[in-house]
Amino acid sequence: MVCAVGAAEDLVGVSHECDFPESIVGRPILTSSRVSVTGTSGEIDRDVRELLRTVLTVYDVDVETLRAVDPEVIVTQDLCDVCAVSLSDVEAALRSIARSDVQIVSLKPGRLDDVIEDVRRVGVALGRADEADAAIVDLRARLAALRERAGAIGTRPNVLTIEWIDPVMVGGTWMPELVEIAGGHALVTQPGDHAPTLDRAALAALDPAPDVVLVKPCGFKLERTEAELGDLRTLLDGLPWPALETGRVFLADGNAYFNRPGPRLVESAEILAACIHPTVFADLAAKHAASFRTW
Fold it and tell me: Comparing 85 with 151, which gets the higher pLDDT?
């Protein structure tokens, strides 16, 4: 988002998860995770829950590196303490280095419009309001064009998006809006909802059942999700879903797309469109071929 408003050269540090655009790779890293990401999704979930039960935080801020890079503005988040460093952690780190003059821009988007307006908030904070407005015009135009194409199709398959495998969590926040833009009907959640956890009985009882399923675990690249296909097969085997009968279950890169509230949510909507209406959106399927596949 900082780069989208033209401030890449001003970026003096990033989180351990920041990897896009590639030009930012190599900047000082200011955060780290206390959870090993080499385990299964079930093991990661249990580790995170235990950390939150005992020490309240999943991430650490490198205070000495923070002092060294000497920021004037910090862009952080206050949406999910599981996904990234919390606002309170950032504030504590600044207190420890006696910096009360740093402007904190904390983002807490719950819906798609919130994400887009956050581009403006970041741009204003960085003195690049005009660049932010231009970026927003582009994002909205691309989303509107996609919605128009999808709206002309006339059918809206029922779509289930899964953002964690063990336990199964269904995509909330902006995901139902992306599904609608891409020409589908989102199951289970409404825009702005937090991701609910569903057991197998609840999945089997879905009515309507999903015509299309997209599995895009938060923080997992495509190959990382593919490593859990055995667990996914056990989870879904025998469920009375049209998506399973017709082979319309898709795996996608949940690290780069869908779960990060930034400009690439437009690309995320394009991937969804390619999954929901593959014939109409064959061009988008080709464009994003490296980021999703049929399971």
Answer: 151
Tokens of 14: 């990033």
Cis status of the peptide bond prior to 210, with omega within 30 of 0: no
User: How many of the other CB atoms lie within 10 Å of CB of 50?
Assistant: 11
Quote the DSSP letter at residue 196: P
CA angle 191, 192, 195 (to 5 degrees): 100
**Residue 126 to residue 73: CA distance in whole angstroms:** 8
In 3D, which of 93, 96, 87, 86 has the Cα closest to residue 33? 86
Under 8 Å between Cβ of 292 and 248: no
- Partners of residue 213 on adjacent β-strands: 160, 249
- pLDDT tens per residue, range 128-170: 999 999 999 999 999 999 999 999 999 999 999 999 999 999 9
Q: Is 154 left (phi over 0), alpha (psi -120 to 50) or beta?
A: left
User: Taking Cα atoms as reference points, which of 268, 134, 145, 290 lies closest to residue 223?
Assistant: 290
Longest dimension (CA), the chain: 60
Domains and CATH numbers, the chain: 3-108 (no CATH), 153-294 (3.40.50.1980)
Q: Which among 121, 123, 65, 61 has a CA at the least distance from the CA of 92?
A: 61
CA distance 143 to 70: 37
Find, among 229, 173, 236, the residue nearest to 210 by Cα.
236
User: Which H or E element spans position 185?
Assistant: strand 185-186
User: What is the pTM assigned to this prediction?
Assistant: 0.93
